[in-house]
Amino acid sequence: KTPLKQAATSRSVLTEIQPECQPLTTPPKPKEILPEDPWTPTSNLKMLISAASPEIRSREQRRELSNNTSVVLQAKHCLQEHLSGHEYEKTQPSRKEKSLGLLCHKFLAWYPDYPSTAENNYICLDEVAEELNVERRRIYDILNVLESLHMVSRLAKNRYAWHGRHNLSKTLQALKKVGEENKYTQQIQMIKKREYEHEFDLDGERNEDMARSFGSNEHLEMSFVELPGMEFRAASVNSRKDKSLRVMSQKFVMLFLVSTPQIVSLEVAAKILIGEDQLEDLDKSKFKTKIRRLYDIANVLSSLELIKKVHVTEERGRKPAFKWTGPEVLPSIQDTKLETTSTTCPPPISEPIPSKEQCSKNLFPSRGKQNFTRHPSLIKLVKSIENDRRKIQSAPTSPVKISASTNQDSAAFPSEVAQLPAITKDKLEEQSKKAKEMKTKLSGSALECGLSFPEIVPKPEPPFTTAAMQQPALTQPLSACPPSHSSVSPVILPQTPSGVSYTIYLHPSQAHTVTTYSPSFMLQPLPGANVTGIKSINPKVLNKITTEEGDNQIATDDVTKTFTTTERPTIKSETVSQQCLKRSHALQESHLIKRCRRDEENLDTSLTFFPSGYLIPLTQCAHGNKAGFLNKEKTGTCSLQHTAYSSPIAGVIPVTASELKAVNIPAPLNIMLSPTSIAASPVLSNSCLSSSNTSSAPNPSSSVLNFTLQHIGLIPAGVQVPANPVLQHMVVPSQPENVSHSSEDLQEGEVSKTALQLPHRWVEGEPSVPKELQEPQAVTENFFRTPGGPNSVSSLSANSDGTDRISQGTLYIPQRKLEVSED
DNA sequence: CGTTCCCGCCACCCG
DNA sequence: CGGGTGGCGGGAACG
């Protein structure tokens, strides 16, 4: 059937990849021009392009280089064989030639990776479809995944805007973050674990808890993750509810960004993606479908050279998987500059704080199905809100009640609606403007417009000392904190920091809100020495191992180098807060100290970031704990914030902001609070609001944490996660991505974080196994299974001998070696 | 035979 | 109601 079509439609000249294959319509030029490399699929395109526009040509040329890789080559080979065989046959396009991946390549060839702002980077679906000589349907697939990476955005029906890779890094960072918040790492581990168990004891139903927790609790559903600049563009068209492919794509990417060997098997990915929306019913067909989709996505991602296909060989045989080959994604942005700026204090952040809403409109519970997006008015709203917020922030206001009703209606904002007409124009302008802004920002140290708003942080506040939980006591220095230390132990909700008691309402059902950008994140403080040392070494190794094709740049290295083992900062004495503030490489003690001091006075978020490592919401500590304090001290601020949210506008946006508040405890967990609850508790509301529109929340006491953990199913009911240092030890040195912190820095505020992280660590931690590492292609994965039952955390704490290395012990039991082979 | 995944039916959604 | 979108899964090409 295809043949006919092909013939019929093949009129679009160069589009066809195999010139010779098409006797009838053989494009005349191809041969001449492609002396050496006649078979590069893109070659035709190039010609086409060059003929069409000189401007594009250059892009093409550049792209040409990259094209010579992967897919293209394969295609080439195939074709060659094909030709040599029965050259003249009407070799129908042969399935491969029609592959989505190739198609995507062709598509990409038309647009520059980094388009200049002023340009008509518009994409017309019809045109493209025609040019590429494929049905529209296929283009949608490509565009959808590209859109998920914000490489394009829909402007209107049949029309997209091309952004190229400009937003890529930001997007990835955002995705990574969301992935972390979603506990993807844990989910992956869980799945693997289950798998593992299945293998040996066919216990189908054994881990109810696991299943349960996974199914119901974790079920953190998130929707499309937006980038700051691109929120509602195309709202009118953007209506589509599901966006499943887009969302799937994002999630898929997140998995890579979050998992340590950056390899994800289709199977696991599929399970996670499924698990998310529906509890796990091992629906066979569904699984199959999911996998099919994943292949589609993977093909596109491969074309983008973000991933590549590999095979993971396990006992069970080899499974298809993909390995991330894209750029390394630094946890927190803002720091491209770190290295350079290290010694000095980063420039104060003067920018108005972008509202979180803007950054992520994502947070809509997918279920809620209130299609806010549909209202074009929203576009306008977003803007106006932004403005309002700025104004409001500085303006005195009286606290207003926050409208709990999420269902705002557009009706409520007539004025906004009225302004709609102007939107389009605005958008355009905005775009270009934005582009400029971006550049500007990049040059500044604060790279990310949206990503790292230091926002609220700037308020002078007492350092994190008060860390939520235990007030003073925490100051303990490094040594291993005795488990007992957990006076704050779990179950009981002793006193809340502020003395105010509050309740946290979890919204299990409701998905969590994904906060794309939480300004208030910081890396874990860790003694620079340890981390650094480790980092500098392992990461490289890992990278090499994993990346054998010698692909690329190992960004990490540079960073790593920056702060080598040289410094053995003895920061012990420093307070947690100080440590937190430090940047790992800015280890020069003197500098550090000074800086820290300064920081204390004025918390500058930027300072709180470490070049790489684990991100932890820091602000929260400060804010949360100080709740009481805040109330008094920061009342002004709080009220302001309040106002902002409660304004009518807020009502709309609220979707994002007020609908669900995410109490972002340690990275992995995301506790959602209903707006109501927030409102109910002064402490929370204040802290939440004040602490940036992000998901930041006050640090609940460890007990709360435990509660949460249990509730969520991260830890068995009986187990308590002590707010003790031991946990910290969980970290495995070999982890390239996450910086491990030594037990030493435990501190008040930190405790809570630590505790929470535990789960994350366990799962994710990877024992450092040099040998393994040395074998190229071999990746080790750890599954932790608990001999005595579901994670016996308790044993862990028992183990706490002060220093780390527990990693290898109890939790990580089996360690399997997986071989990854290239295709 | 298992993997990969193209193709296009057809349900949505919107104007 | 027509046209743009895009789930979805059969089943064919591929290995």
Protein architecture, described:
It is a single chain. The protein has a domain at 100-197 and 239-324. A five-stranded antiparallel sheet has the order 4-6-5-12-11. A three-stranded antiparallel sheet has the order 1-3-2. A two-stranded antiparallel sheet has the order 7-8. The protein is globular, with a radius of gyration of 27 Å. The chain is 45% helix and 7% strand. The chain starts with a helix and ends with a strand. It is an alpha+beta fold and 823 residues long. The protein binds a DNA duplex (15 and 15 nucleotides) through helix 6, helix 9 and helix 15. It is found in: Nucleus. This is Transcription factor E2F8.
**Any idea what the radius of gyration is?**
27 Å
Characterize the overall form: globular
The largest sheet is: 5 strands, antiparallel
How many H/I helical runs?
36
Oligomer: single chain
What fraction of the residues are assigned to beta strands by DSSP? Answer: 5-15%
| Helicity range | 40-55%
Distance between the termini: 31 Å
Adjacency order of strands in the biggest sheet: 4-6-5-12-11
Q: Return residue spans where pLDDT drops below 50 for at least 5 consecutive residues.
A: 1-71, 78-88, 203-219, 333-816
The chain-level mean pLDDT equals 46
> What is the tally of beta strands?
12
Structural class of the helices, strands and pairings? alpha+beta
